[in-house]
Automatic annotation (TrEMBL), chains A, B:
SMART domains cross-referenced by the UniProt entry: HTH_MARR
Record domain HTH marR-type: where: 1-148
Alphabetical list of SUPFAM superfamilies matching this protein: Winged helix' DNA-binding domain (SSF46785)
Coiled coil: none
Gene3D superfamilies: Winged helix-like DNA-binding domain superfamily/Winged helix DNA-binding domain (1.10.10.10)
Highest taxon of source: Bacteria
Matches recorded under Pfam families: MarR_2
Protein name as annotated: MarR family transcriptional regulator
Length: 148, 148
DNA sequence: ACGAAGCTTGCATGAACATGTATCTTGTTG
DNA sequence: CAACAAGATACATGTTCATGCAAGCTTCGT
């Protein structure tokens, strides 16, 4: 009838997604502020460093990094540019394919990540706790945590 | 228990939040593209219209709107400016408090919202389904839907 | 009670920044 | 050479932070 014939869970999906959005906004805002204030880096930078630290040899192709941090390809070009400007990473040519570029983390980048990691973890759990303490989001947080 | 010195659930919180981020990025991207392509409005505009439609008299104070859509105060000033430029809303002075401003939805705004509402609902459910079909996110989506 | 000083609140504006889309450059491959 | 792939760049948008301004509120001296 409507565009698709019949979408049974659409209404509850919408209510559910509204809570996810509220939770996401709440948590991400706190993480952003804490990382910026205590360590001088943004959330995308932190997550990129995290990916690089855990990657083999501390390096990733640009497109791989884009997928892992959930950004577009061009955003990652500039993100790595920022990491380079801050001394946390550099670009390296891919030996086999001269089109390819590796983003490589530096020792300084590893240190900054190690510094910020604790903050991230603490603030994340704290933000989830405060969100879970509100009646509106309690069920959502609990469901996510139970599911692991 | 120990919120500060020792956070037992921190590690799993981090893993869990990574999945929420992936899900959020996936779904929001699809919603953004669908609304922009089919109805020529952004996600924030759609959500603002939704808040206004459901608000008493179709009007909200700027700060109320900011809270509901999860944006900062200045972002909402500009968001309502865009809605005004598109003919979907206008500003009205608050009678009691001359500092206050109401954002009021227009008939045209209500129509555009009614048009886009179906798209939003369908794309949301579809995006949740595709995400839930991946082994990585299946558990997360299921947990959220069960919790409703 | 009056009223002015000082703080707070609600919104607007300008500059900086991050992101997405489209396009361009360069390199690879058939 | 044609077709395609990986990144870089140009441009337009949207978001935030810091700031500014105007209106309400509070307090205190007279």
């Amino acid at each position: 009838m409507t565009t698709t014939s019949y979408t049974p869970a659409a209404a509850s999906d919408q209510a559910m997604w509204g809570k996810v959005l509220a939770l996401h906004a709440h948590v991400e805002r706190r993480l952003t502020q804490a990382l910026q204030r205590k360590h001088g880096i943004g959330l995308s930078e932190f997550r990129a460093l995290e990916c690089l630290v855990h990657a083999k040899a501390g390096e990733l192709r640009m497109q791989e990094l884009a997928d892992k941090v959930g950004l577009g390809q061009s955003s990652v070009t500039r993100l790595v540019g920022r990491l380079f400007a801050a001394g946390f990473a550099f670009r390296d040519l891919c030996p086999g394919d001269k089109r390819g570029v590796y983003a490589v983390i530096t020792d300084e980048g590893k240190e900054r990540y190690a510094d910020a990691r604790g903050t991230y973890s603490e603030v994340l759990s704290a933000a989830l706790n405060t969100a879970g303490a509100t009646p509106e989001l309690a069920g959502t947080v609990q469901a996510l945590r139970s599911a692991h």
